[in-house]
């Protein structure tokens, strides 16, 4: 049985890697007024952060079910099964869209998987699934491995500018003003599929240090991990951080990724994240 792997754009897997591993991607969109752009296709990350400086904060939208249906129908010509891996169902209806579309398409068995997370940490699931599919593993083996990964996956995000959370309705104006005055950098994480505060930390430096401490707690077991540093238009800082952590944690393989337009809409430029999973 041949298994296809599908994900959405918020995994932010580079195009070359998607092509190499035969990963099929459905984009989410950002909406500036009446103009809608599919991320990773019609708008790239650097362009998005420039647009945001001069325009109203955009809204974001999930893919139409019809896009899933079209893709699944195409895949049915060559595959028996689809594993469709998506950002947390607690922050988007994308996963449910994949479930509904899978029920509408005949001739292919669709298994939607809720990553309960987003960004390149979601991408870890996708890459693992694609590598296993390429190696001829069954969809049951792949799904079992994804559930196993869920036990060790962690991710923390630091928001640099509280105004995006406030403008996007995630934080009250009073909290944003007080937070800015106190230089509070909320450390966020996913809990029960939702983005919630993990700790309130006073400075950017301390927030980043705290993320490293959390990774060190897991890595001290000696097990091998892979980790990703995620940035919102802070590539130089992210590269420096990566070099520092590689020297400090030899049993962790580090990657670099970014908060693209859809997730960047809610977190804002300057945000940093660190996520990891046991190999």
Automatic annotation (TrEMBL):
SUPFAM superfamilies: DAK1/DegV-like
InterPro entries the record matches: DegV, DegV_C, DegV_domain_contain
GO terms for MF: lipid binding
Domain of life: Bacteria
The entry's keywords: Lipid-binding
The protein, known as: DegV domain-containing protein
Lineage, opening ranks: Bacteria, Bacillati, Bacillota, Bacilli, Bacillales
């Amino acid at each position: 049985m041949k298994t296809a792997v599908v994900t959405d754009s918020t995994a932010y897997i580079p195009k070359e890697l998607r092509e190499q591993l035969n990963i099929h991607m459905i984009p989410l969109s950002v909406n500036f007024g009446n103009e809608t752009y599919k991320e990773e296709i019609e708008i790239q990350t650097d362009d998005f952060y420039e647009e945001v400086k001069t325009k109203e904060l955009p809204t974001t939208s999930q893919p139409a079910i019809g896009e899933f249906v079209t893709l699944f129908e195409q895949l049915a010509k060559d595959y028996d099964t689809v594993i469709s891996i998506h950002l947390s169902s607690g922050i988007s209806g994308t996963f449910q869209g994949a479930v509904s579309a899978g029920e509408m398409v005949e001739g292919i068995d669709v298994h939607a998987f809720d990553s309960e997370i987003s960004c390149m940490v979601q991408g870890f699931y996708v890459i693992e699934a694609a590598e296993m599919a390429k190696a001829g593993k069954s969809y049951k083996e792949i799904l079992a491995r994804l559930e196993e990964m869920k036990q060790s996956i962690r991710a923390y995000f630091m928001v640099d500018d509280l105004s995006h959370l406030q403008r996007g309705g995630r934080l009250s104006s009073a909290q944003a003003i007080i937070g800015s005055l106190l230089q509070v950098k909320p450390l966020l994480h996913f809990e029960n599929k939702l983005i919630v505060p993990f700790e309130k930390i006073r400075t950017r430096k301390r927030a980043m240090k705290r993320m490293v401490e959390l990774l060190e707690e897991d890595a001290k077991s000696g097990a091998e991990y892979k980790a990703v540093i995620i940035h919102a238009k802070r590539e130089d800082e992210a590269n420096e951080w990566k070099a520092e952590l590689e020297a400090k944690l030899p049993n962790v393989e580090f990657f670099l990724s970014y908060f693209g337009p859809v997730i960047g809409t809610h977190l804002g430029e300057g945000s940093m994240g660190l996520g990891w999973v046991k190999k």
